[in-house]
Write a structure and sequence with these properties.
There is one protein chain. The protein is of the alpha+beta class. It has 29 helices and 18 strands. β16 and β17 form a beta hairpin. α16 crosses α19. The longest helix is centred in the middle third of the chain and has 34 residues.
Amino acid sequence: MKEFLKRYRQYLIPVLLFAVTAYLFTPQVLQNKVVNQSDIAAWRGMANEIIEYNKANPDEDPALWTNSMFSGMPATTISVIYDGDYTDYFYKLINKISGTRPPAYLLISLAGAFLMFLAFGINPWLSAIGAFAVTFCSYNLQIIQVGHNSKMVAIAFMPWVVAAVVYAYNKKALLGSVLFAFALSFQIKANHPQITYYLAMIILALAIAQLYSAIKEGYFKKFISVSAMLLVAGLLGIASNVNHLWPTYEYSKFTMRGGSELAQEEGKDQKGLDISYATNWSYSPEEMPNILIPNFNGGSSGGELSRKSHTYQALKSGGYSGAEQVIKQLPLYWGPQPFTAGPMYMGALSLFLFVLGLILIKGPLRWWVAGVSMLAVMLSWGSNLLLVTEFFFKYIPLYSKFRTVSMVLVILQITIPLLAIIVLDRILKKEYDQKRLKKAFAISLAITAGLSLVFAIIPSLAGSFVSAADARLPQALHEPLINDRMSLLRADAFRSIMFILAGAAVIWFGYKGKIKQGLVFGIIALIFVADLWMVGKRYLNDDHFVKRRDFENQYALRTVDKLILQDKDPNYRVLDLSIESPFNDSHISYHHKTIGGYSPAKLQRYQDMIDNHLYREMQQIATDLKESRTIDEAQSSLGNYPVLNMLNTRYIVISAESPPLINTNAMGNAWFVTDVKVVETNTREIKMLNPAEADQEFDIRSHAVVNNSYASLIEGYSKDTLASDEIIVLTAYSPNKLTYQYNSNSSRVALFSEIYYPAGWRAFVDGEELPIFRANYTLRGLKLPAGSHTVEFEFKPESFTKGELYSRIASGILILLLIGVVVKEILRKRVPTKQ
């Protein structure tokens, strides 16, 4: 054991330090506190119906659909229990060993980055420093704070994948390829395709660099064989995730990311997200310096100032008694984005070393790192560099499916520390002569410390320091806040200079032999930790943690919720107008099936309904209730809202502590119609639902509008006036299955207040399948035979059932490959080397 510890201590000690660091950064978890994450709070609201159903029905198929948001949608991007992937056991084991979230995320990232640097042949102690530089970039702490957990996990596994690829090319091809398959499988399991896409960009650039080296140095055949192994392994890693990739891809075609059919009918070439929507969060050249100076643009949209600030002094001199509270949440960010949690700060010393690496390092390594980094920067500019963005949107596969283009800067979280630590390792190994190194130091200091000094002395060069959010503040605070933003920039500029000069001095004296290498490692580690730790604490600190009970209290039943839940009907919908934005808040979905909710990937057809009808009808409700002074007056003032009615909106919430308004015009779970209007276009179909735009008689209670593509499914229905005994009633409800009983004297067209989704819903009448057609732009419709019958809707997409099978096959092969490689390595070590 002693020999083992002595041999591997340079690896074991860093891993131990990683665990200590991760938990020291977030010690609140040891007090049973959780991060008060807004996005996780939103997720819990949207996922509650799914979670509770699965908990109550462990022997049934897990919920794949939910009615809790947007009148019904697949559970695919919310919460699904996926079976079939054997590699999931390893993934869960890694998460279990890592411990509690969020320190577990930090620990996974630290371990993976450590492996990545080791794969590049870096000294273990420097690899540990590099791991910290990768993990504690400020963006990671920001996304943990707001609750982008899947994104953080995907980022944490990025260096694992890079490590495996490098290991395969530089050391053991077969073992590296199998490890690549597993690492990629884990990264994809985080379920954040956008981060995986950016990872693919890094890997592709790395492979091109390897190809160049192979051609130049004459090992092209080896490159081809290793690349082939990596390709096969990568495909297996991807295939092990087919159980959730297939449903996600299938769903994406019908979401906002699949493009709008209405836009296409208007002649717009839109096959993905609208480019203006996707580039809403675009970085700009003017704010790029915040990767070097964290408060270059003021930091976050809601930040805290000190009592020494100009704003605080202005508040106190104006006699404002609540100054202490005001300075805790001020719009400090003044850049061009709508709002932000903070800057993409990469570390001052990392930037200095990165620039040094670009100068000193020659060959493919420099070019693939520089190339993919520059591409990431240009793509992050989005609307500020539309020429590049439009090219990628039009011609690069899948790029148009992603929004928030500034997210591509996560690539820099890999490339900047990577080149920084590689060049540091080479400098300390004295691979460069003193004259060349001295010149490179001067240039890098001029670019990094010099730029910081310019902004420290003349901060006005950065811009106006004015934000659109300032308009919400009293005029008297505008100038003091501008002065504070200037002070923040100046302070952080001097701060970056200090870290750069300190780090450069230690590295130089280490190179000259004036400081022992072990001490150089220790001081450099302290500089990296002090720099990134302090900035990271601005975005994830004790203020962001709450007791678990307090976090869960946000879902506590309001008075209005308790009153609504007295209704025992299995399926009706609620519209909450008491919240700021019903279509960007899922808290009410925790308790009710709702018209609104929150999802970055809602069904495009439902978004069309929101844009064309629901917003208008909500405004009409506000107009109708404007003069009401009591609940009774409000109830009697309600008008007729056709689309809300057909979505079975039974309750309208106008106050959390008042009874809900009852929409007596809600049309119920299902109804028969006597006439169907067939139209040629989607545009005409959606417009028919608005009485003002329907240029022919159309009563939504007795009429349906159907696209011509479904006309054959409604032939031969009865248009006779409905008899009093012709009814259709919902008798059983679960997320995956709805059961109705009906009686009809003739063949009737029935509409169901459920969202039409073509990939997975099937309908049966007394066990015999009937085709579902789309009606009223978003609803399901059936042509039902005469008589008394049972109708069942069942949601069971093939993408889940077949995807599970394919995942079993691929992951099974991976497990066998892993066993084979491990056995081969053991046998190889046991065979004595020939003398």
